[in-house]
Amino acid sequence: MSPSSSSPKPSPKPSSNPPPRGRAASSDRPAAPGRPAAALDGFPVSRTARYVWYGLLFVLGLLVGTAGALVQAAWLPAGLLLALLAAAGLFYGGLRATGTQIGVAAAGGGWLVAVVLLSFGRPEGDGVFGGGVGELLFLFGGMGIAVMCTTLARLPRPAR
Questions:
Q1: Which of 57, 75, 82, 85 could join 106 via S-S bond, C-beta 3.0 to 4.6 A?
Q2: What does the CA dihedral 21, 144, 89, 47 come to, rounded to 10 degrees?
Q3: Among the residues of the chain, which ranges form H helices?
């Protein structure tokens, strides 16, 4: 037996750096230079597809904001809750669908544009919002939910 084979091998020293977190850490290969590390469900997504997602989320935000403005005024306590739940679902869905906070911002931007345009009213005096507490709760509650969804941390993906 040689002396090198009988001596025990030194164990590797533990690293003081914590393991990487986030979407880039879940992929098997590093992100290429100039390309985003984020991908939908582990599949690379082109920049064009991502912009299409953002446009779709903006249009969905317009629709949810318009529907929420009508529903919250029609059935005040339950309608307000339903409208805020729909907005929360859209904002969180935007976060999960795109994997970025820009998805929430796109959906929130569409929602806010719809709500602000509907709050202006017409010169004849017609308007969707009557100026009560429900409308203010809908406006500020929706904006608060959008901010909360934007600041949410993405949960790590389970190992496959």
A1: 57
A2: -50
A3: 3-6, 23-26, 47-74, 76-98, 101-120, 133-151
Length of the chain: 160
First to last CA, the chain: 44
The answer to pTM > 0.70 is no
Q: How would you write the pLDDT of the chain (160 residues) with one tens digit per residue?
A: 555 555 555 555 555 555 555 544 444 545 445 544 454 455 566 888 888 989 999 999 999 999 998 888 777 788 889 999 999 999 999 888 888 889 899 999 999 999 888 888 777 766 666 677 888 888 899 999 999 988 886 655 667 6
